[in-house]
Design brief:
alpha/beta, Stationary-phase Survival Protein Sure Homolog, Chain: A, two-stranded antiparallel ribbon, binds manganese (II) ion
């Protein structure tokens, strides 16, 4: 099996290294990751400027390819140019910080996994709650167990998954909950500060706790200390809206009217 490993924290991130060490149990690992941190860039791609990439070495051992672009760029270029053959699995992470709730849509980590799914390759994003002394190796063991369980279930090619690991789950026996993404808005507050030249600047403040929901979401399960697994899809079409919009006739005037 060939696994393409990427992330949004950059090729030197410790989470990427830990995930790579653990994934080598499953097969060959090709590392293609952004050259610099790209957290929060979502599904951005580079198309107005050329993309450069270079192989990074630790002594005489290749660490992988560093792409001077976004996480999605790294996956596209990785599959097209740097993987020795078409990968069987794309893994993005381990991200430093959870990617749950609407943050899934801002996440470069998840976007890289989505890009893998675009290619019809089963892909998974892996994120660990931010901690200054995060234990990425323990998180990678948990991720390996979940990825093994997913592969045993023989997901359809192009299946897409989002895995989140809270700090609390690194101790003892973690509990896995399969939950939907929470879609409430949060993180709407900014702290206004003044810089040394008297100009205002704004800093996003901490997120308030999620509102209660009848169905447990990833955000709530993570707050309870559980590992969360969410199957995702990138087709944003609102199915019911198709019928609503297709009903009746549309009148659009001809040119020159
Ligand atoms: Mn990140």
């Amino acid at each position: 099996m060939l696994i393409l490993l990427t992330n949004d924290d950059g090729i030197y991130a410790p989470g990427l290294a830990a995930m790579g060490r653990a994934l080598r149990r499953f097969g060959d690992v090709s590392v293609v990751a952004p050259a610099t941190e790209q957290s929060g860039v979502g599904h951005a791609i580079t198309f107005l400027t050329p993309l450069t990439a270079k192989e990074i070495f630790d002594g005489d051992r290749s660490r992988g390819w560093a792409v001077d672009g976004s996480p999605a760029d790294a996956v596209k270029l990785g599959i097209a140019e740097f993987c020795p053959r078409r990968p069987d699995l794309v893994v993005s992470g381990i991200n430093s910080g959870l990617n749950a709730g609407i943050n899934v849509l801002y996440s470069g980590t998840v976007a890289a996994a989505i890009e893998g799914a675009f290619f019809g390759i089963t892909s998974i994003a892996v994120s660990l709650e931010w901690d200054e002394h995060a234990d990425y190796d323990r998180a990678a063991e948990i991720a390996i167990d979940v990825i093994g369980g997913l592969l045993d279930r023989r997901p359809a090619p192009g299946s897409l998954f989002n895995l989140n690991i809270p700090t609390r789950a690194l101790q003892g026996v973690p509990e896995l909950r399969v939950v939907p993404m929470g879609v409430f808005r949060y993180g709407e507050a900014f702290e206004r500060r003044v810089d040394p030249r008297g100009r205002a600047y704004y800093w996003a403040t901490n997120d308030p706790p999620p509102p209660p929901s009848p169905v447990e979401t990833d955000v709530a399960a993570l707050a309870a200390g559980a590992v969360t697994l969410t199957p995702l899809e990138y087709d944003l079409t609102h199915r019911a809206g198709l019928d609503i919009l297709a009903a009746g006739t549309w009148r659009i005037g001809p040119a020159g009217s």
